[in-house]
From TrEMBL:
Record PANTHER family: ABC TRANSPORTER SUBSTRATE-BINDING PROTEIN, ARABINOSE-BINDING PROTEIN-RELATED
Compositional bias of kind Gly residues: 32-43
Upper classification of the organism: Bacteria, Bacillati, Actinomycetota, Actinomycetes, Mycobacteriales
SUPFAM superfamilies documented for this protein: Periplasmic binding protein-like II (SSF53850)
Region (Disordered): 32-53
Lineage top rank: taxon: Bacteria
Xref: CDD domains: PBP2_UgpB
Protein name: ABC transporter substrate-binding protein
InterPro entries, alphabetized: Bact_solute-bd_prot1, SBP, TAT_signal
Length: 438
C-alpha cells in the first residue's frame, strides 16, 4: 500500500473524527481551553507526569526523571501511577479535566490521544517545540506523524510497539519445526499447532490475551491476512465473508485448544506453559528477565501486512499555563531523547523513537547481541499497516470488538451471529455520532 495514500486517508479520518468526538459529549470537553488557572498543580511548581508505566517501566521512568531533575533543578517532576493500562489512565485524565486537578504530561495511547486532541484537552506542540528548542524532525517520521491533526502535533512517540510472536525454541525443536522463524501464514500455524501441542506435553500452541486486554488489537492482523478487515474507512466490514472466515478460524483454534485465551499469557509462556505467545513488543523486556525457557521473536503470520502498529505517546494537558507547557515539552524532549529512547527500548522491548537511535553505539551493540529485539524494528517497515477506523476512530471500537471476540473464543458462540451484532452496533454508532456530521 502506498504510504502517501495511507497518510492522506488517515488525515481524512482525523478531520472527520474532530466532529464525531465532539458529538460524544465526553467529560474531556469540560477541560478544554488554555487558561492558566486550569491546572490543579499550578501552585506547587512541580510538574506531574501521569503514566501507566508501559512495559513495567516505573523504576526506569523514575530513573530518567531523576536524571532530568539533575540537569534541570528548577523543574521538579513527580511521577504518578495513573492506572494499570492506557484506558484507566484516560479515564482518570477525563475525571481531572472535569475536576480541575490536571497533570502536566500524560501517556496517551493509539486509541485515546485523538479524543483528547479533538476536544482541545491536550495542547498542540509545534509552537512549544520551537520555544523549547526541540527538533521534531529527529523523531522517526511515521511515529511522529501518528499524532498529527490538521497540520499540528498533539503528542510525541514514547512506548511505540507492534505485535510479536514469541516461540519456545525447545518445543519447536522437539516438534521438528524450524527454530529460526515463525509460521509464514495462519494456515501454516494450523499445521504446526498439533505438533506444538504434542511436543509441549498438551500445553497450548499459542496463548493470547482476552478481549479486555487488547485481543481486538492482536486479531486485527489475523483478519487482514484472511482478506477481511474491521472496516473500510467508515464502512464496517465484520460481516464480509473473509472477516467471518478469520473469526471462524480463531474460534476453531481455540475450540481445538491450539490457541488459549489467557488472563496472563506472558507469564504463562515465560514459565514454559505454552509453546507460543502473541503479545506486544513491550513484553520483550520482561520476558528477557523472567522467562525460564529459551525463545525467539518472529513476525506475525502473513500475507503482509499481518500486524498493526500500536503503543502510546506523551501529550501535554491544555488547561495549564503556557509556562508549564513549555517546561512540560522540555521534559518530554528529555524523556524521549536518543539516550533515553535507547535505554527505554532495551529495557521494555518498545521501539526506539528517534532516528539516530538505531546508529547509537549502545543500540548497535545491543541489537547485534539481541536478535529478538531487532525483530520489531524490522517488522515495522515490512509487515505493518495503520489500524482500521472501526477500532481507533469509532467511539468505543476496541472495547466493542474485544467483547465480540470474547464471545466467539471463550463463549464459542456462532461467529456469523456475533459479527452481525458487531456490525449493527458499529454501524449504529457511526450513524448516530459520525454520519450526521459528515
Amino acid at each position: 500500500m502506498n504510504p502517501l495514500n495511507i497518510e492522506i486517508s488517515r488525515r481524512k479520518a482525523l478531520g472527520l473524527g474532530v466532529m464525531s468526538a465532539t458529538a460524544l459529549g465526553l467529560a474531556s470537553c469540560a477541560g478544554g481551553g488554555t487558561s492558566a488557572s486550569g491546572g490543579g498543580q499550578e501552585g506547587s511548581g512541580k510538574l506531574q507526569f501521569w503514566s501507566n508505566h508501559p512495559g513495567s517501566s516505573k523504576d526506569l521512568e523514575q530513573e530518567m526523571i531523576d536524571a532530568f531533575m539533575q540537569e534541570n533543578p528548577d523543574i521538579p517532576v513527580e511521577l504518578v501511577s495513573a492506572g494499570s493500562n492506557y484506558e484507566e489512565l484516560a479515564q482518570k485524565f477525563n475525571a481531572a479535566l472535569a475536576g480541575g486537578d490536571l497533570p502536566d504530561v500524560i501517556v496517551a495511547s493509539d486509541v485515546t490521544w485523538f479524543n483528547f486532541a479533538f476536544n482541545e484537552a491536550t495542547a498542540p506542540l509545534d509552537d512549544l517545540w520551537k520555544q523549547a528548542g526541540t527538533d521534531p524532525d529527529s523523531y522517526v517520521d511515521t511515529l511522529r506523524e501518528d499524532y498529527a491533526l490538521d497540520g499540528k502535533h498533539y503528542g510525541v512517540p514514547y512506548s511505540r510497539s507492534t505485535c510479536l510472536m514469541y516461540f519456545n525454541t525447545d518445543i519447536l525443536d522437539k516438534a521438528g519445526l524450524p527454530t529460526d522463524r515463525g509460521p509464514a501464514t495462519w494456515q501454516e500455524f494450523a499445521e504446526w499447532a498439533p505438533k506444538l501441542v504434542e511436543a509441549g506435553g498438551g500445553k497450548p500452541a499459542l496463548v493470547v490475551p482476552d478481549g479486555s486486554n487488547y485481543l481486538d488489537w492482536y486479531f486485527q492482523g489475523m483478519i487482514w491476512t484472511f482478506g477481511g478487515a474491521y472496516s473500510k474507512e467508515w464502512e464496517p466490514t465484520f460481516t464480509d465473508p473473509k472477516s467471518i472466515e478469520a473469526g471462524e478460524f480463531l474460534k476453531d483454534m481455540v475450540g481445538k485448544k491450539y490457541i488459549e485465551i489467557a488472563t496472563d499469557p506472558t507469564v504463562q509462556f515465560g514459565s514454559g506453559n505454552a509453546a507460543g505467545l502473541l503479545e506486544s513488543t513491550g513484553s520483550l523486556g520482561g520476558l528477557k528477565k523472567t522467562a525460564t525457557i529459551p525463545f525467539i521473536t518472529t513476525y506475525l503470520p502473513g500475507p503482509k501486512p499481518g500486524c498493526p502498529t500500536g503503543g502510546a505517546g506523551l501529550a501535554v494537558a491544555n488547561g495549564i499555563s503556557d509556562e508549564r507547557k513549555e517546561k512540560a515539552v522540555k521534559f518530554i524532549d528529555f524523556m524521549t531523547n536518543t539516550e533515553n529512547t535507547v535505554k527505554f527500548s532495551q529495557a521494555t522491548g518498545y521501539m526506539p523513537v528517534r532516528k539516530d537511535a538505531i546508529d547509537h553505539p549502545d543500540e548497535q551493540k545491543y541489537l547485534s547481541e539481541n536478535q529478538n529485539a531487532k525483530t520489531a524494528i524490522e517488522q515495522l517497515t515490512e509487515n505493518t499497516a495503520p489500524q482500521d477506523y472501526a477500532r481507533v476512530f469509532v467511539p468505543g471500537g476496541g472495547q466493542r470488538i474485544g467483547g465480540a471476540l470474547d464471545r466467539i473464543t471463550v463463549g464459542q458462540e456462532d461467529v456469523t451471529a456475533v459479527f452481525e451484532d458487531l456490525q449493527k452496533d458499529t454501524q449504529k454508532t457511526i450513524d448516530q455520532q459520525i454520519t450526521p456530521l459528515l
